[in-house]
Structures are given as C-alpha cells and as structure tokens.
Amino acid sequence: MKSFHNRILRRANRFCLSPANYTRIKRCPFPQSRSFSSKLNKVLEVADFARRTCKKLHEAAFYLETQPVLEKYQQNKEADPIRLLDDDLKNLRLNIKRLISNQDPVLASLAEYYFDLQGKRIRPVIVLLMSRAISFHNNYQDLLINHKDADPYTNATSMIHPKQTQIAEIIEMIHTATLIHDDVIDEAHTRRGTTSINIAFSNKMAILGGDFLIARAAISLAELGNHAVTDLMSRIISDLVEGEFMQMTSTFKDTTEFDYYMEKTYKKTASLIANGCRSVAIIGNGTQDIVDCSTRYGKHLGLAFQLIDDMLDFVSSEEEMGKSGLTDLKSGIITAPVLYALEEFPEMRPLIRRKFSVPGDLEQAISMVNSSHGCEKTKQKAKEHCAMAIDAISNFTDSKFKQGLFDLTQIVLERKK
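Below the sequence we write its predicted structure tokens.
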C-alpha cells in the first residue's frame, strides 16, 4: 500500500506546479493572443488541480503511516503517567512556593494566585518524565556495556538530577507568567473556573505579578550554572515574545497561511516544551542523538497540544474549558479550525480580512467552522504530530517512563479542557 502511494505521489509531483512557479508563469511575457491565453489558463488550472490533489495524497499517505504508530504505542487508554511522578510533583510545588515567597504579602499573593488552581502541570510532567526516561536509558546502556553480569532491566535506575527538577520549576514559572500576561491582553474574566488575576487584582498588579515570576525564574536559571541551558531557557522567553508579536502584527496574507500559523504556534507554545526537554537531556548527560530526539518529542507534542487547544475552543463549553470560549476568534485571531474551514468556505475571506468587525460576522464564521471538517482536520493534524513525537523517542530503552511519554500523547489528544 505504501509503495503504491509513493508511486502516485512521485507522478503527481512531476506534473505539479508550486505556487511560486504558478505565479512566475502567469507573469511571463508570453504572446497575448486570445487562443494562447485560453490554452495557458487551461494548463495552469490543471496544474493547480494537480498540486492540490498531490497535497491531499500526501496527507492521506501520512495518515496511513501515522495511525498504526498511535495504535501500537498508546497501549492503555486509562493510563495516568502523572502518577509516576507524585513525589516529584509534590517537591516541585513546595520548591516553587519557596522560590516565589516574598516579604510583601500582596506580591506573594499575586505570584501564588494561579499556582493554587487545580491543573495537571502538563509541562513539568513532560520534562520530569523525559528526565527519568533518559536516566533509565543511560543507566541501562552503562550496565549493558560495563556490567554484563547484571540484569540491566532489574538493576537500571532512573534518578532525577536536582537541576532537572529545577528546569521543570523554571518552565512552570515562565508558563504561569505567560498565562497572567495573556489574561491581561485578552481581558479575560475567568481562568480554570476561577476569577482571573487581572479581575481579582488589576491589570497593573497582574503584570507586576507576571514580571515577578519571570524574575524569579531568571534567578533560578542563573543558579544552574550551565551556559547551554541558559541559552535555551532564554530562547523560550524570546520565542514567547516573538510569537505574540507575530499574532499582533500579522497581515491578512500571514493570517491565512498555515505555515505562518504553525510557526507562531511553535514560538508561543511548543518552544517551551521542546527547549525544556532539550535542557533536561543536556543536564542528564544524554548523547547528541538523545538530546535531539528529546527536542523533537517536545516540539511535536507541544504543537499537538496547541492544535487540540484551538479545536477545543470550538467544541468544548466554557465550563469544561475553565475559561472564556472563542477568545481568539473574537479578537480576529485565526487558528487551525478556521484555516481548514476556509478551504471549504472561501467566502469567509472577507470576514477574516475585516477581523469579524461587522455585526453578524462572528456568528457566520462560527457557523462555517461548525459546518466544515475544520475541527476534524485539526485533530488529525494533532495526531500526526503525536505520531512524530512517539517516533522521536522510539529508540529509548523501554521503561515505564518511556511508556508514560507515549501515554501523554493520548492524554493530549483526548483532553476536554
């Protein structure tokens, strides 16, 4: 089946024009006879059809490849990998409380406000599981090579280095700071079913609380004393700011391009997870291959997480999400479900161009998304990235922590909030 698809793709690509080549041919100074122009337009229409068909064939072939991967490794639909880290997460919460404690009671209340809310702490869970999976892998390989008389599976350990726990704490503080700033920018009223910090205090106070968390994260980062990790953690903050600017300053052309959306999504969401995984791999003395594989896992899981988040904005209630719904669309921000819906409803383009500013635009856009396959395609794209995340760490030594990383992909895909 796979070779059949590859043959079709090669043939389709041979006759396929890229958008850039399409534009070049249109601009060429060909003789402008009516019959010639008519024939040229026919050729270009066929070529454009071939290009779109080729894209769909690529998507179909990739689906056939990724689906078995998910079915093979997502073994336990009821698995809860977070339970593997109960003690680690308790220590993480206590350490963060200590890091953000302050003599000023108001500042301390601001910093702690969102840490008291119930959540899965998915980002520290990812990096802590990655830390233990790498530790087990390294220890297993060492036993296999240097202690051939010992059973590597029963004797291998999965100790976490204190600096890896510190990275998980830094990531959670940076993430929480971005939630605070996002709620100010979005003028949010709730967060996880609780009054948002900007409403509970004020915009100015909330911004100061977020800045304080970033400052505490920077102090903790300096204590690591690892230049490579410091560079990665700094890149996370830079990417977060760049991603927000991409969102705020995008043109209509940018807004309607899927590649632009994915780049923005990487910077705003996936960079934190990818560089967090890379950092713990470096601290854990992983080989270059392990470091790169960890990074790819974090990148693809982060992209899948945001794709599902954008889908839930349309299919989950505010009660399930724990925050206001359709915030992005109301702000004129275009996400994956809308981009996929646009393929089926090109009449949505003028609505997007004017950022749904005319009465009735928003309702019409929501109706188009709900009538399209936008949410379904968004989830399929998330599945593809989960399959790539699984593939990235498939060569790690088998352990309950590696399986926990596999199970996280299922949690990301099936979450309701």
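The CA atoms of residues 26 and 140 lie 60 Å apart.
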